[in-house]
Amino acid sequence: MPAHTAIPFADPAFMNPAFPDSRGFHRQGRGLIDQGRPEDALPVFQHAALLARQGDGQGVVDADRLGRILYDVGYCLYDLGRIDEALAEFQDAVAAAEQGDAQGLVHGDNLAACQHLVGTCLARLGRDTEALAWFQQAAEAADRGDAQGRVDREAVGHSLHQAAACLARQGQPDQALPWLQQAVAAKEQGDGTARVDHASLGASLHLMADCLYALGLIEDALVWFQRSVQALERGAPDTPVNHDDVGRARLRVSHCLMDLKRPADALPWALAAVTAVEDGDAAGRVNLEGLCHALQAVGDTLASMGRFDEAMDWYRHAAETAEHGDPAGLAATLTAGAACLRKLGRTEEAAAWELRARTPVG
C-alpha cells in the first residue's frame, strides 16, 4: 500500500486534437506518458506550458489549462524521482488553477489535484506537517466539484486519507482517526459516477485499523482489518486485485486474534495470508519479505497451539524465503525456530539455529 501516488490527468475533452497551440503538445506528452516514457514527455509538456503562458491570439491566458499542463510537468519530474523540482511545478500549477479558466471559473477538481500533489511531494520529502495542510485544502477543493458541480468523492477521500497518514506517521493515531472516518465515508460514495474503488477504500480501512491497533484497541482494530480484507478482495475497478495487499490485511487479522489469545481462529487467517501473498500484487509480483512474515505467522500460531512439529515445517520455509528475499528478517525467523526446536527437545539443532541467528547477514 504505497503512501504517496501521483496520478496524471485523463481528460479526453481537454486533449481534443482539434485544439491548436499548447493542447496539441499536451496531447503528445500524454501519449508519451501512456507509453511509460516520462523522460521523453517532460520537454514536450514544458514546451506546451511555454505556449500556454503566451495565451491565445488575443494574449488571453487560460490559467486552468496552464495549471493542467504544469501538473503533468510535475508528474514527469515526480516519476523520475526529482521531487524538489516536481514540488515547485505543482505549486505553480496550484497558483495557475486558482486563477481559473479564460472565463475566470475555478475548477475545483483541477485545483484539488494540484494541491494534493503538492502535499504528496512534501510528504515524500518528510515534511508531513506542511503536507497535512495541503491535503486538507485539496479535500476542500475537491468537495467543491468540477465546472459542472460534480463531486468526485473518491478524490475527497483520497486527500483525507493522506492527511490522516501524515498524522499517523507523526505518532498521532488518535488525531488521524477522525480524518479516516471521513475518508472512508467519502470513498464509500465513489467517484463522479458513483463507482467505488474498493482497493482505495480498503487502504483507508486498513489504516483505520492500524491506528486503532496502535492505541491498544485490538478488538476494534480486528473489525476494521476484516472490513479492509473484504474491500481489498474486490479491488479497484477494471484492475487486477492486488493479492499482496489482501495478504497483509489477512495477516493483520491473524495478529489481532493472536493478541486476543485466539490462535485457533488466527490460524486460517495466517494460512490465507500466505496464499494471497503467493499470488502476488496486481502485476503478479511476489513480495518475498511479506511472504516470509506470513509463513512465520503460521509457524508462530501452530507453536502457540503446541503443534511444534508442524510449526517447524513453516519456520524452515520462512527461513529459506528470508534468505532469498528478506535477509534482515532472517534472525527473527531463526530465533523463533530455535525456540520451537527446544520445545521438541532437539537442543543441538536449536543451538545451530541460534548460532545462525547471531551470525551477521552478508
TrEMBL record:
- UniProt keywords, alphabetically: TPR repeat
Q: Name one Pfam family in it.
A: TPR_10
Annotated TPR repeat ranges: 67-100
SMART domains assigned: TPR (SM00028)
UniProt cross-references to InterPro entries, sorted A to Z: TPR-like_helical_dom_sf, TPR_rpt
Q: Does the keyword NADP apply?
A: no
What's the protein called, per UniProt?
Answer: MalT-like TPR region domain-containing protein
According to its UniProt entry, this protein's organism is Nitrospirillum viridazoti CBAmc
